[in-house]
Amino acid sequence: TGPEKAAALLARKHAGPPVTMLTAYDYPTARLFDDAGIDALLVGDSLGMVVLGYPDTTHVTLEHMLHHVAAVARAKPKALVVGDFSIGTYPDAATAVANARKLVAAGAEAVKLEGGVAQADKVRAIVEAGIPVCGHLGMLPQSVLEEGGYKKKGKTPEQSTALLEDARALAEAGVFAIVLESVVPKTAEWVSSQISVPTIGIGSGEHTCDGEVAVATDLIGTFPWFVPPFAKPEADLAPQIIAAAAAYKVRVQHTPALGQS
Length: 261
Ligand code: KIV
Ligand code: NA
What we know:
Layout: H1 2-15, E1 19-23, H2 27-35, E2 40-43, H3 47-50, H4 62-73, E3 80-84, H5 93-106, E4 110-112, H6 120-128, E5 133-138, H7 144-147, H8 157-173, E6 177-181, H9 185-194, E7 199-202, E8 211-214, H10 216-220, H11 237-254
Parallel strand pairs: 1-2, 1-8, 2-3, 3-4, 4-5, 5-6, 6-7
Helix pairs in contact: 4-5, 5-6, 6-8
The structure holds 3-methyl-2-oxobutanoic acid and sodium ion.
Family: Belongs to the PanB family.
EC number: 2.1.2.11
Subcellular location: Cytoplasm
């Protein structure tokens, strides 16, 4: 069950090994990543950019998320399926619980939301409803428009202390893990050492957190138009996809059609 899988990931804080999380938005990718033994599949709202073609995550709706959570859940992965809340879908505790239930009904086994101290009451309410919650601190993509861009976090002592306060508030509210996005490596390491739940880093340095998350398209090279500087691609599939389509075109156009030979 979701709570059991989430508890097992929480225990990895001390037992290890590091937690592996990848985003997945569809059935085949979920099956393939699950076959690789990945611990958690995040149906992230990065969906908006890398699958739906929007400029940022602020265009993603709950309906988009439910559609893709359901596709991933149909793979019946051993991995924990985490459904991301899209922007504006957790304005208060009651709405957050209601929408968490929709994500779970679609097949999510846990949910994720952005923010710290200000979200603690929502996290507590969702956890009390029996749904595991993953936190998300540091750079928060849903705030990109207010912040005027994607900025590194945890640069100053003040920012680092605020980050730790946020992380502690989430841990006390009952999250099983916290994603740390675009946090200065030293700060990510420090926050990780000060809290009781695993941190899952992205763009926050290597081996600074208790695990890592990567966006699927960054890992396999299927979104070549934007690759974040911290991405470590393990495959470069875009040229192979183009080559396959081009080979198909050659085969179709160069095979004499019936009656033309
Ligand atoms: O939506 C997403 O892919 C995420 C990860 C970057 C953590 O939130
Ligand atoms: Na996200």
